[in-house]
């Protein structure tokens, strides 16, 4: 009898201690940087007229790599500034949660880049839904708002798949608005609200 | 079974509402009141009451400041709180170990 509650208490302590180490590093700057990059990429793509299947896939995959590099540098900079290890347990958990859905998105992009350029019109909603799944998974180790942010992408991706015509027209703008605009807005929100809201 | 470890458990920590607070604070340098409240899904009053008890026992330090012109209350474990929590975990582990040994002895018989 005593063993049961003692073991249960130890389990509760372990779970809570894991949950306490929530990932919060450089979230507002990362979201802001990704947002600005996404918006700039959308403007550039529209001006240049990137609306062919393979080119569209390759271009936006390159933008994604730039965004990942930005996030990596910002997170590393804050880790150095705070004198903390970069690859901390919360960072590792977030990366592990993000990775499967991002990997699927990369595979879908590569497929449209080489084998099925005509299917590229499906890339934006698929990427959006997969990115939403990645954020939702990472949301278990991040502040609560990330899960909702993830759901926003999932629902937008699903709505686009159902409603949008099977063409790439306006896809660059949509990528800019949904990826760039949403990240920039969320970055601003985090900038003004992080460490706020107190009751005592 | 030896009841000694059970009797040694710190009654301030060994409480349904306070143990989770101590566990969360043990894993972070500090946490805001809001973070604690949201993670533990406690009401403001309930959390304030438990924090006050822990503060009076010298286990938790509470700091009040301003962030973006809004009040921010942060809680952290004091060295005494950290020590008491470590001792509490040791005792729990002892209880589990003891019970397993008793069970094994009974099975052998």
Unreliable parts of chain A: 196-200
Terminus-to-terminus distance of chain B? 16 Å
- Overall pLDDT score of chain A: 84
Put simply, the count of helices of chain A is 7
Strand content of chain B: 15-25%
Number of beta strands of chain B: 3
- Count of structural domains of chain A: 1
Total domain modules of chain B: 1
Task: Encode the helix/strand succession of chain A as letters.
Answer: HHHHHHH
Instruction: Report the principal-axis shape of chain B.
Output: elongated
CATH architecture of chain B: Orthogonal Bundle
Largest sheet of chain A: none
The number of distinct helices of chain B, counting runs of at least 4 residues, comes to: 5
- On the 0 to 100 scale, the average pLDDT of chain B is 86
Radius of gyration of chain A: 19 Å
Main sheet properties of chain B: 3 strands, antiparallel
How are the elements arranged and paired?
The complex is a heterodimer of chains A (200) and B (109).
Chain A lengths: L1 H19 L6 H22 L4 H29 L7 H26 L8 H16 L6 H19 L7 H23 L7
Helix pairs in contact in A: 2-3, 2-7, 3-4, 4-5, 5-6
Chain B lengths: L3 H5 L9 H9 L4 E2 H8 L3 H13 L3 E8 L2 E8 L1 H30 L1
Antiparallel strand pairs in B: 1-3, 2-3
What do these coordinates show?
The complex is a heterodimer of chains A (200) and B (109). Chain A has helices spanning 2-20, 27-48, 53-81, 89-114, 123-138, 145-163, 171-193. With 200 residues, chain A is mainly α. Chain A has one domain (24-192). Chain A starts with a helix and ends in a 7-residue tail after the last helix. Chain B has a three-stranded antiparallel sheet. The two termini of chain B are 16 Å apart. In chain B, 60% of the residues lie in helices and 17% in strands. Chain B is an alpha+beta fold. Chain B has one domain: Arc Repressor Mutant, subunit A, CATH 1.10.10.
């Amino acid at each position: 009898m005593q063993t049961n509650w003692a073991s249960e208490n130890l389990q509760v302590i372990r779970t809570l201690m894991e949950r306490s180490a929530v990932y919060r590093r450089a979230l507002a700057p990362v979201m802001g940087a990704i947002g600005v990059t996404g918006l700039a990429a959308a403007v550039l793509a529209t001006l240049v007229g990137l609306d062919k299947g393979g080119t569209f896939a390759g271009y936006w995959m390159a933008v994604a790599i730039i965004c990942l590099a930005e996030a990596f540098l910002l997170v590393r900079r804050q880790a150095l500034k705070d004198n903390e290890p970069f690859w901390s347990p919360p960072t590792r958990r977030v990366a592990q949660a993000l990775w499967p859905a991002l990997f699927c998105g990369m595979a879908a992009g590569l497929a449209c880049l080489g084998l099925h350029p005509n299917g590229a019109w499906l890339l934006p909603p698929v990427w959006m839904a997969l990115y939403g799944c990645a954020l939702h998974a990472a949301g278990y180790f991040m502040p609560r708002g990330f899960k909702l942010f993830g759901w926003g992408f999932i629902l937008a991706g699903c709505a686009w798949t159902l409603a949008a015509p099977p063409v790439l027209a306006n896809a660059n703008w949509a990528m800019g608005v949904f990826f760039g605009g949403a990240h920039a807005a969320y970055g601003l929100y985090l900038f003004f609200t992080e460490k706020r809201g107190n009751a005592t | 079974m030896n009841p000694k470890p059970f009797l040694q458990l710190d009654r301030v920590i060994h409480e349904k509402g306070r143990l989770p607070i101590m566990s969360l604070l043990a894993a972070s340098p500090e946490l805001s009141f809001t973070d604690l409240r949201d993670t533990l899904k406690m009401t403001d009053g309930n959390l304030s009451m438990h924090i006050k008890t822990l503060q009076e026992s010298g286990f938790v330090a509470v700091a009040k400041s301003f962030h973006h012109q809004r009040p921010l209350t942060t809680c952290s474990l004091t060295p005494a709180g950290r020590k008491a929590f470590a001792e509490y975990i040791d005792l729990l582990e002892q209880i589990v170990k003891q019970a397993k040994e008793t069970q094994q002895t009974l099975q052998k018989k």
